[in-house]
Amino acid sequence: MLLQKGITVWFTGLSGAGKTTISKLVETELKKSKLKVEALDGDIVRQHLTADLGFSKEDRQKNIERVVFVAKLLTRNDIIVLASFITPYQQMRDYCRREIGSLVEVYVKCPLEKCIQRDVKGLYKKALNGEIRGFTGISDSFEEPINPEIIVETDQETAKESAAKVLAYLKQHRYIGH
Ligand code: ADP
Predict the structure, then answer these.
(1) Which residues neighbour 101 within 8 Å (Cβ) at sequence distance 6 or greater?
(2) What is the pLDDT of residue 2?
(3) pTM for the whole thing?
(4) β-strand 176-177 against 3-4: which pairing, if any?
(5) Ligand 1 pocket, CB under 6 A
(6) What's the gap in Å between 66 CA and the centre of ligand 1?
């Protein structure tokens, strides 16, 4: 049985960059080792915990504040939290780090053009047509992360390679191990 120390792995990046995909691979690997993991995904959280919120700067902040509240409780109980949220502003990411304490920031980096090309959820098309206002990358900014512990470049590496980087970090820093 592996030991684990609480940490929140915070995936930040554009919509379609690969946050959920990589997080799921990490989750599967950790669960194979019988570790306790909880995934908090932007799309799912917004259907439940923060269904009342939109995408204005103010609502985005509230969304993150509620998620951080949950992530903090789990982390302090030694759960490994995998949080996938666009988190477009540096001030938000600083807030997460400050509040949660035990946090590793993963910048899921992918050129906007590539995300538009992938358009996993058809949202870029709508945003470009003006059907969605304040969409990150199109009509709202994504500030480049200043101090992420890990950067994965999903246009240049496979999701599996990116997940391996995250797992290696957790092992190296003894969040998981014997
Ligand atoms: P996000 O959670 O950041 O919005 P998703 O994980 O939902 O992004 O979507 C990313 C899409 O890109 C998926 O369809 C995934 O299969 C694809 N993809 C292609 N290459 C990669 C890669 N190297 N890493 C992650 N996702 C990739």
Answers:
(1) 72, 75
(2) 80
(3) 0.96
(4) antiparallel
(5) 13, 15-22, 84, 108, 118, 120, 154, 157-159, 162
(6) 25
